[in-house]
Amino acid sequence: MKEQTSTSKILDSMDEGTKYSTPIFGSEASDVAMPRLKMNDKPVEPRITYEMIKEYLSIEGNATQNLTTFCQTYMEPMATKIMAETMEKNAIDKDEYPMTADLENRCVAMIGNLWHADPAEEPMGTSTVGSSEACMLGGLGMLFRWKKLAKDAGIDIYTAQRPNLVISAGYQVCWEKFCRYWDIEMRLVPLEKDHLSLNMDTVMDYVDDHTIGIAAILGITYTGKFDDVQKLDELVEAYNQQHPKLPIRIHVDGASGGMFAPFVEPDLVWDFQLKNVWSINCSGHKYGLVYPGIGWVVWRSKEALPEDLIFWVSYLGGEEATMAINFSRSASQIVGQYYVLMRNGFEGFKEIQERTLDVARYLAAELKEMGVFEIYEDASHIPIVCWGLKDDAGVEWSLYDLSDRLRMSGWLVPAYPMPADMQDTTVQRVVARADFSMQLAIKLVEDMKKEMDTLNKAKFVTGNTQGVIRTGFNHGGRSAVDKGEKVQTKAPTPQK
Ligand SMILES: *Cc1c(COP(=O)(O)O)cnc(C)c1O
To answer: Is Lyase tagged as a keyword (predicted)?
Structure first.
């Protein structure tokens, strides 16, 4: 199947005209289409291949202006150097790369320490590809634990009713995957205007003796809000007093907040200081400051991690526990995580996170000042700013229009509907990261004002342009939910 058109040649038809001295853009390869459906027959010089691919990728926009993603878009040169130099090591080969394995264990210990894991309880954990894999593992830990307890309590775990997981409707899609892959009912606690995180008044109504656990979210992807884990722990503790045979435990999905709160809100109690928090995950590639993909999951104790989840691999003549779903992957992200932990130290992390928060709060204040926006989240915990249009904003344009206009200056600022029960509310969100410095925030504010002015003066063909051009910010979420079964996956939502 040739991709050849009348105007483009393909690599296969290249002659031997290119010499080492030929300038890159004088080469045959730069004069033809890059391979698409079938490999080219002949090799291409590396310098030319590099430039062609780089050029092709360069037109997709720059990561710094991508205010959609939670994922790191900057690492310093020495960090990328050590990562590039360790790419060939396979993280799972603990016996062959014991020093790398040692660095991974150190990361688990240090991150566990940030979350107040008590070494006396023998906390355990692992690196993962990201929070998705980490949440899967946290979820499986809950499932295996529940199965054992339920069996011991004489509950029919196979036929009567499926096991269920309780979580707020603002969950990230990995939890839906977890429930679907392992046939678990997803019990969603709806979000409401005055409950934009897990509703503490109703959450326990969703719990029964088939509940494997409750997932609390530290940094709801839609809004950046934190679930009140301390309050949840109190409610769970009261429940557990009444149900000693089938106690409920909490997994905290700290994908974004897990590597943020310890530095900027050391007094916030959400982690292993709480009795019923048995596992926590974070994305090393979000506020853990490493390029994608790395995540972490830690269980508070040996007891919290069911044996079924552990596989043993040989390590230095002995055995080492592994519990990842994935097998082979490069060790470079682990090395990168170790690098940023060591290089920044607690103080360095704190400085970076506080400065990022500062920029996000500046942005929130400016948006408030503009008068037409209702601010849902003003970077109260993590540097997320989330806003909607006021009911009485008196403008004809929608946030989708504003999002489109901002793209013209390179800014990616997604607009999307809120999840279940609030899907009529459209919001827009900025995720500030370390490389979104104040000067860029000032520029964004200027550009927003300019684009809003353009929109205010624009003539609309119809009164309602909402959703006409919905640019697809779908990073894996959804907006409509019906208590865990049928899922509408069409609506664009931001999830990263
Ligand atoms: C981003 C995110 C995830 C998924 O994390 P990845 O590292 O992208 O796999 C899970 N939960 C929450 C709350 C998130 O924000």
So the answer is: yes
